[in-house]
Amino acid sequence: MSDPAITIRFDGNGRAYQPGETLAGGYRFESIDPSEIKAIEVSVLWLSEGKGDEDLAVHEFHRYNGDTGEPLDAARPRRFSTVLPQSPLSYEGVIVKLHWCVRIRVFLHSGREVVGQRTFQLGNVPATKVRPFVEEMA
Amino acid sequence: MARTFRFYEKKRGHRRTGSKTFASAGEAAFFAAMLLLGCVGAVLFVQFLVVPEWRVNHEFRTHECRVLDSRVKEKEDEDGTLYRGEVLIEYKIDGKTYKRWTYDLATTHDTADSYTSRKEDAAERVADVKVDPKAPRDCWYDPAEPGIVVLVRGYSWWLWLVGLVPISFIVIGVGGVVYTLLHWGKSTERRSAITQRVRQRDPFDANGKTRAEYPNVPTGAEVTNSPGTKLKFRLPIGQSPGWKLFTLAMVCLIWNGVVSVFVAMAVSEYLAGNFSWLTTAFVIPFALAGIGLIVVSFRQLLVTTGVGPTTVEISDHPLHPGQRCRVLVSQSGRLKFNSLKVMLVCEEEATYRQGTNTRTEAWEVHRQEVSHHERFEVKRGLPFVDECDLAMPAGAMHSFKAEHNEIKWKVVVQGDADGWPDYERSFPVVVRPRSGETRR
After folding, report:
1. Which of B206, B195, B201, B94 is nearest to B147 (CA)?
2. Which residue of B has its CA nearest to A45?
3. Distance between CA B353 and CA A81 in Å, rounded?
4. CB-closest option in A57, A91, A111 to B397
C-alpha cells in the first residue's frame, strides 16, 4: 500500500489570485482509510520564510471533528472556498518571503497526522532584486 | 517505534521536526516540576520563616527578665570568622530560673542570618541593651517551650523578598501547565486561529472591527495625527537624535565605567612592578571598544547640537504602489551644505533566535532618490525648504509587520554639511496594497 497523501486542486487550475477574489477548490485523500480519520483541518494561511523566525497567520480555518458525530465522508472529494484578504500579498524578498497556501491536515485515530499543502500567489508583487547592502543590529 | 514516537529531532532554525506529543509532554513535565518546586518552597517558607515570626509577635508571652551580660560571639566559617551580638538574660517561670544567651528569634535558633562578617555591626546590635542585673526589662518567651526567649520582636523585611521566590515558581509553573494543556495536540494552524479569535474579541483592538481591513499592514495612525504647515501631514521622525544621543551616552558611560576598573587594575599592577601580559591583553580590546564608543557618542553630540532639526511633510498618507504625492523637507541650522538628499527607502527586517540571543537583521531592498541639492547655505532663522514629487514604484510591496518579520518604508534625509559629520534622519511611512484608500 502506498503512503497516505492528500491531493489539493484549485478551481480553474488557478495559481495567482487578487485580493478580494474567491479562492475555491477541492481535496481528496489517497491511501487513507476513511474509518481511520479522527479529524480534518482545512486552513488558508500565509507563512513567512527567510532569515527570521517563522510567522504564520490563518485567514480561514475549519475543523471537521469525527468525535462530535459530524460525519466525515472522506471517500468523496471535499470542497473549500474563501474570499481572499487585502493583505499580506505574496512576496519574494531577500531575507523576508511571504507565501500563501491551502493546508489540509488529517488526524488519524492512530495518532498520526497526514498533511497536504498547495501554495498560490496573492497579488502580483514582483520578486525583489538583491542589493549589496546589509546592516546588522544586536 | 522510531516512526511513531521520535525522541531525537532535528532543528532547522526555529522549526523542528519530531514528536510533538513528546515535546508537549516534556514541556508539561518541566512546568509541573516548577510548580511542585514552588509549592514545596512555599510550604517550607511558611513553616520555617512565616509561622515562627508570627508566633513571636502574637503568641509569645511578655515577661520580666534581668540582663546579666552581653558579648560578641565568634564563629569560624568557610568564609572566615563570623560575629553575633547576644545578651545573657535571667528570668523565672513557674519557680524555675532560666539563663539564656539571646537577642532575637534568629539568635535563639542559631540560624546563619543571625551572624555578620563585621565585628562592629555585631557589637552595635547589642550596644543599646543596658547590662544591669538590678534593672528589670521585658522579654518574650514561648509558652510551649519557656526556654525559648527573645529580647526584640518584629518582622524581617527580607522575609517578603524570600517569599517572592516560591511564588514566582508557582506562577510560572501554573501558567506553563495551563498553556501547555490548552495547546496539547493542537496544530499550528489551530493555535493561530485561536489566537486570532481571541484578538478579535479584544474590545480595545482594531476599534472593535472583527477583522482588520489590511491584515499585517500597520495603520500608520501615528503618521497622520500631526498636521503639516504646508502639506497635509508632518511625518514623525523614526528615531529622535536626542534619544539616540542619550542611548549612546548611557552605553558609553556604563561600558567605560566597567572597563576603567580593569584599566585601573592593570595600571596599578604595572606601577607595582607586577606587569602582566595576560591582564593587558585582556583589557586592550575592551578599552579600544570604549574609545570607539566615545568617538561615536561625540560625533552624535555634534550632529544633535550642531545640525538643526529636519522636518518632512507629505501630501497623502498612507501611500500605495504607483501613487504620486508631494513631499516637503525643511532643514534648519546655520550650515553650509555640500549636499542634501531626500530618498525613499524600503527595508526588510528579520528577527531570529541564535542560541540564547535574539538578533535582528535588516536588508535594504529599495533606495530611490527623490531630490538632491548641492552646495547651498542655510542661514539662522531661515530654514532650507525643498518641495518635490515622490513617485512610489508601481510594483512596490506594501508595508508589513508580523512578530518576527517586517517590511518598512521610510523617507530618508541624508545631509553632508561642511565641517560636520554626515547624518541621516528617517521618517517612516506606511504603504498599503494598491487597492488601499488614500486620505487627502
Report:
1. B94
2. B189
3. 36
4. A91
d(CA A102, CA A9): 10
Asked if residue A137 is part of any domain, the answer here is: no
Task: For residues B362-378, give the mean pLDDT.
Answer: 92
pLDDT at A100 over 80: yes
Q: Is residue A105 part of a domain?
A: yes
Cβ burial, residue B21 (10 Å; 0-12/13-18/19+): middle
Helix B241-271 to helix B277-306 angle, to the nearest 10 degrees? 150
| ipTM greater than cut 0.85 | yes
Per-residue confidence (pLDDT) for residue B5, from 0 to 100: 46
Q: Could you tell me the three cell numbers for B135?
A: 534593672
Q: Which domain holds residue A10?
A: 5-122
Residue type (1 letter), A47 = L
Neighbour count for residue B130 (Cβ, 10 Å)? 10
Residues A49-76: tens digit of each pLDDT: 999 999 999 999 999 887 665 556 767 7
Q: Is B354 on the interface with A (CB under 8 A)?
A: no
d(C-alpha A27, C-alpha B379), whole Å: 70
Q: Which of B189, B404, B406 sits opposite A53 (nearest CB)?
A: B404
pLDDT in tens, A28-39: 988 888 888 888
* Domain presence at residue A80: yes
Instruction: Say if residues A100 and A119 touch (Cβ distance below 8 Å).
Output: yes
* Domains of chain B listed by start with CATH number: 61-152 (no CATH), 310-429 (2.60.40.640)
Residue B123 dihedral angles phi and psi, to the nearest 5°: -70, -40
How many separate domains does chain A show? 1
From A75's Cα to the closest Cα of chain B, the distance in A is: 23
Nearest alpha-carbon partner for B387 in B328, B324, B311, B310:
B328
For chain B, positions 2-21, list CB contacts with chain A under 8 A. Answer: 4, 13-15, 21
The verdict on residue A127 lying in a domain is no
Q: How far apart are CA B50 and CA B160, in angstroms?
A: 9
> How much is the pLDDT for B14?
46
Q: What's the gap in Å between the CA of B367 and the closest CA on chain A?
A: 10
CATH number for A33: 2.60.40.640
| CA pair distance B64, B419, nearest whole angstrom | 83
- Pairwise CA distance, residues A26 & A8, whole Å: 6
**β-bridge partners, B87:** B70, B102
Sheet holding B80-93, edge to edge: B96-102, B80-93, B61-77, B132-142, B145-150
- Inter-chain residue contact B402 with A19, CB threshold 8 Å: no
What's the Rg (C-alpha) of chain A?
18
